[in-house]
Amino acid sequence: MTGPELIGHIGATLLDSVWQAALVGLEASVAMIGLRKARPQTRYLSLCLALLLCLLWPAVQLIARLHGAAEGASGTPVLVQMLPGIAGTDAGGWQAFLQAHLAWIVAGWAVVAGALGLRLALGMVWIGRAGRSNRTDAHWDARLSNMAVQFGIARKVRLRVVDALASPVTAGWWRPVVLVPASLVAGMPPQLLEALLAHELAHVRRHDYLVNLAQSVIETILFYHPVVWWLSHRIRVERELIADDIAARQLGEPRRLALALSELERLQFSTHHLAQAANGGDLMTRIKRLVRPDTPASNWKAALPVLAMAAACLAGCAGTATRAGGDALEHGALASKPIAQFNSCAKPEYTPDALARRAQGTTSLRFLVDTDGSVAEAQVSKSSGDASLDEAARAAIAKCRFTPGMANGKPARAWAPVQYVWSLG
Fold first, then answer.
1. Beta-carbon count within 10 A of 176 CB
2. Are residues 30 and 135 in the same domain?
3. What is the CA radius of gyration of the chain?
4. Looking at the 3D structure of the chain, how many domains does it have?
5. pLDDT one-digit tens code per residue, 391-424
6. Could you tell me if 242 and 40 are in contact, meaning their C-beta atoms sit under 8 angstroms apart?
7. How buried is residue 213: exposed, middle or buried, by Cβ count under 10 Å (0-12/13-18/19+)?
8. Strand partners, 286
9. 107 in a structural domain
10. 177-181 and 158-162: which strand pairing?
11. Over the stretch 258-278, which tens digit does the pLDDT of each residue have?
12. Is residue 126 domain-shared with residue 274, that is, in the same domain?
């Protein structure tokens, strides 16, 4: 596969991901309405599934395009194919514009994604260095280890004291570490700091670091889509609620955790996206929820909309794979274009009304030529100004035979432009 072909496939996939993620976001918003009274775990799972679909759908489509390249897979965005009204063959058509600028679209995406990926890598390096720091507190390190045993965590959880932090954060999976601000170790009442550490241990027990890291990767790849950022934000909010519930149950004192969070609210926080922090989400909402908990019924049936969304989107993935193998090629991917055999065509005839009006003009058409040279589809891309003449030209030329286009030495379905000039001169 040549470089331009690869760029074309990536660009088309990026464009299609815009409507794909929008559809997933719409279904997710409907699901959240149905799940507003459900447990945070149910909402969290639904949101994670929706975010994963935002990545998997275009990924499956790109794989199908790449694997189908040898058989003539289309590099045209499905969105453009679904809206024939914008797919004109004239130079000003949206399809021509997008095809001409795919390289710039891919280049811009690669630059921004690369910069965000670098930022992600630097964040991981910073966390790694903080985790390897020798600065610790013997008392709190021992207390954290005892609490980890009570949480059922078999791995060693380390504690490190860091100056440049405002809230405890958790990082790492195989060797988890809790980074604690030096100001909290020195100034926060021990029982409140213990409550914050319980919240961090809840993240460790649930392996939330890995999910958060996967979120960051998806945000890096699909940075241009607001639905991705909305879903990711909602996931983090629900995750904090789940950690609060686990910590409150373990402590047996929800109000103590609420008081610890209220102390944190007075500080100005910085968010570390690679780590799980006690200051995530809406702190005031979390505090009110801990002080006055409600007991919503866990209605698993409310999750049916998001399950339907998953089934529909996976079906869309399969349908995309089918289209990628059988859709028509545009001229940029053809070795030779379809050629009309005009001796097989019937000459379009003036309609009586158009003749009476002495209508004239040029009808621009596009034909989907099948591998056997027959016309599978005919469209008027630019009108002559008279609808009856346009239809006469379309109906007549649709009966033509074509020499099919060639790709990789084989006949390929392709679009062919044809113009017919109506003149009474």
1. 23
2. no
3. 30
4. 3
5. 888 888 777 877 887 877 788 888 888 887 888 7
6. yes
7. middle
8. none
9. no
10. parallel
11. 888 887 766 544 444 455 555
12. yes
